[in-house]
Amino acid sequence: MPQKQKSRSWTELKQAGNECFKTGQYGEATTLYSQAIKELERHSKKNPEDLGILYSNRAASYLKDGNCSECVKDCNMSLELFPFNVKSLLRRAAALEALERYRHAYVDYKTALQIDYNIAAAHDGTNRMTKALTEADGPSWREKLPPIPTVPLSVREKLSQKSTASAAQPNQPKPAPQQNGTRQTNKPAPSEKEIKKAQALKDEGNALVKKGEHKKAIEKYSQSLKHNPAEITTYTNRALCYLSVKQYRDAIRDCGEALMIDSSNVKALYRRAQAHKELKDTKACVDDLNSLLKVEPKNTAALKLLQEVQKKK
Fold it and tell me: What is the pTM of this model?
């Protein structure tokens, strides 16, 4: 008689799900995380934190597949089990943003920053939501926000101790970047003064772009990034200038910097695709456009450029 196949433990299923996620097999990853959740829920001594992480991982797969509603549901479950889990907050924020629920997305981005001020993607998300809400609700947009929860000091200290402990173990493997395309920067957070200086220089760069003075704008954006190297839009703005002056490799480098902070940034993916097209690297161009269309399936500029480069193949 054939031997009955041994069922996999929840940890094995989780690991298999992680491997599928890394290779872009998001549907398969979702299935494996679902099986792991079922396995762990069968345990009488299940750890709520472990279960919370599984829901968060499945949420990341849903997000990558564009299933934002399911992503939000899983993040809600994860945060009930594992309150103030940064990854769940960022994934839910990204999904809410995609669903145009900007007020709730803003709250999640701001909550994540209370836990760790160095999360560049949360700063960038806060900036995007501020802009969208100002356009939608006018100058009094803050009055319409849901309450922003206060992260208890004990939670912040616990997370701080965890990061200190991992830093004290040099032989430990580095933690993987946060799925959902976000990473934490190791640089100290810029001061309020530096952020204001960076913003002023960026604004000067933007004004020069409007006048068509792209080379001068590049200088301003470069100065701005010295004060605040975590501002994604400064990289994507400088990349646009590099495209205009035909410095395509510099544009690719800047888009790469932006995508290291937020791997689903639409402007960075589109501008890098444009640069690859000019350098006749059709495969890289198509790859970037396909990544963009996973984030925004109806992006007309990306669809048009994709059609254009595929005709030339």
Answer: 0.54
